[in-house]
Amino acid sequence: MEVIILADNKVTTLRPQGLKAEWGFSALILDKENILFDTGQTGVAFENFMILRRNAPSKLVLSHGHYDHTGGILPFVRAFDLEIYAHPDAFLPRYFENRYVGILTRREQIEAKIKEHKEPVEVSKDITALGEIPRKYEQHLLSNSIIVRDKTEEKDKIRDLEF
Question: Which segments does the entry list as coiled coil (predicted)?
Answer without folding.
Answer: none
